Amino acid sequence: MKLIKTTAELIDALVAVRGTIALVPTMGALHDGHLSLISAAHADSDSDNDVVIASIFVNPLQFAQLGNCDDYRNYPRDVDADAQLLESAGVDFVFAPEVAEMYPLRTPEVWVSTGEMGSQLEGASRPGHFDGVATVVTKLFNLIRPHRAYFGQKDAQQLAIIRRMVHDLNLRVDIRAVPISRGADGLAESSRNQHLSASDRRKALALPTTLTALRDRRIDLDQARDQLRNCPGVDMDYLEVVSPDTLQPITWPPTAPALALGAITVGGTRLIDNMDI
């Protein structure tokens, strides 16, 4: 495995690549969910990925105040440990640039706008977040030119936006979704989980528990919201049922495939989750 930190090195390395390239974009702080993306890239039954590239980049554009915030400053970073984990998972190249390498002229003037899809749900609580995501993912696609890119279903809104971006901008990359990886207790794997105390983790289980009850039609949407709001130590941001493609709200009960998404804060840590309905 080769660790690459500059775009010049990346371009030189890619010149020698023959065959199809799979990309797994990450922000580091790797966990089993990320490793499931790597496994999917290796095991994809209807493709033959010759080279697997993972990126590690904590993108300031998708944080509040363009990264001038505690959430960005405190985001866990350990590139060496992440690179060792990726090497053991069979990744061929790790692209781990510094901010100045990705944005040499500082904050870019030209961004990718995610419109209404990026302004609701997570976007309503984190204005500009998805514009930052779409901008950096487009840069990665342009630099690496992958044939396929792998994204986790846990970030369902991000996945829907990336798919629409690829369609609208005629980007030549196949987006592959990988199912949510969960801990033994049912909590969706997330880099932010490491900020949870044992007590807070138990409280956070209210989100997957409520989503499961909603999925199984044991409660309706209003009951699910009430259930989540009334959980001790849990601050609910939103709980919605939407179209998985457009993210537009769907009237309960849904008569077509739908997606339930929720966001909560527990002990100062913001968590998201979703389930197909």
TrEMBL record:
Pfam families: Pantoate_ligase. GO terms for biological process: pantothenate biosynthetic process. Pathway: Cofactor biosynthesis; (R)-pantothenate biosynthesis; (R)-pantothenate from (R)-pantoate and beta-alanine: step 1/1. It comes from the Bacteria. GO terms for cellular component: cytosol. It is found in: Cytoplasm. The active site is at 34 (proton donor). (R)-pantoate binds at residues 62, 158. It catalyses: (R)-pantoate + beta-alanine + ATP = (R)-pantothenate + AMP + diphosphate + H(+). ATP binds at residues 27-34, 152-155, 189-192. HAMAP family: PanC. Catalyzes the condensation of pantoate with beta-alanine in an ATP-dependent reaction via a pantoyl-adenylate intermediate. The reaction proceeds by a bi uni uni bi ping pong mechanism. This is Pantothenate synthetase.
